[in-house]
Design brief:
With 136 residues, the chain is mainly alpha-helical. It is built from 7 helices and 4 strands. 55% of the residues lie in helices and 6% in strands. The structure holds calcium ion (CA) (3 copies).
Length: 136
């Protein structure tokens, strides 16, 4: 997929997201509105669940939103800004080259996906997403 194609995906959503993330970090438990907004944005087919494909699409968007020069790498602080509250993106740098590749970032996000999937059915319900936000 070209950078141009990626730029075309959901830019309106990314602008909304950027606005939502511009504020200071909120205390745990205050993010239910944020969780609901993120869920609506990610559940593209509106079936009430975030599946792996939808989650992956979202992770790619977040990555290229952080990777401003579109070279396929982002820094941990850049990624920490777009995935507010997740923290620790530096841990995603599994090859230790000091930058986060798309593959490394996607793997980090899916670790969180698996952790959030409380009932283990392979998809995230709205309640699972909200619980994940509340406990981070
Ligand atoms: Ca869905
Ligand atoms: Ca790396
Ligand atoms: Ca689930």
């Amino acid at each position: 997929m070209s950078a141009g194609a990626l730029r075309g995906i959901g830019m309106a959503g990314l602008v909304v997201l950027a606005g939502a993330l511009a504020g200071p970090p909120r205390p745990a438990g205050a993010g239910s509105g944020e969780a609901a907004a993120a869920f609506r944005e990610t559940d593209r087919n509106r079936d009430g669940f975030v599946d792996r494909g939808e989650f992956h699409e979202r992770a790619v968007e977040l990555f290229f939103f952080a990777d401003r020069d579109r070279d396929g790498f982002a820094t941990a602080p850049e990624l920490d800004r777009v995935v507010l509250g997740s923290g620790g993106c530096a841990a995603a740098d599994t090859d230790g080259d000091g930058r986060i590749s798309l593959a490394e970032f996607v793997e980090l996000r899916f670790a969180r996906y698996r952790a959030a999937d409380a009932d283990g059915d392979g998809r995230l319900s709205r309640a699972e997403v909200e619980a994940s936000y509340a406990t981070r």
